[in-house]
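Handout, section B. The chain below has 102 residues.
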Amino acid sequence: MAHVAPTSHRRATRASHRGHRSEDGPIQITTWLGLTFAMILGLVLTGRSHVGVHAAGVTLLVMLVPLTIAVFGAAVKRGLGSGKAALSTAVALTFVLLKFFL
């Protein structure tokens, strides 16, 4: 049985790690452009005939869709940052979803 220190000897939890999160500001333009670039790359890779390259593109897109949705969710709380970059990401996400569902 493992020894557990008495309550009086335990370290207190750090106040900075409890509950309140600091504000980071709006989503950065590099985040939007990186997501857009990665989705375009995934679409290009899925268009290739080699089965391994195609599978890599599908895997990339499958990982990016929930991540992009989460970033849009965070942007609702924090702010879009660059509207044009967010719009380009939304367009790329639309193409990816259309590719999967049509």
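Note. The chain has a mean pLDDT of 87. Compare this with the example in section A.
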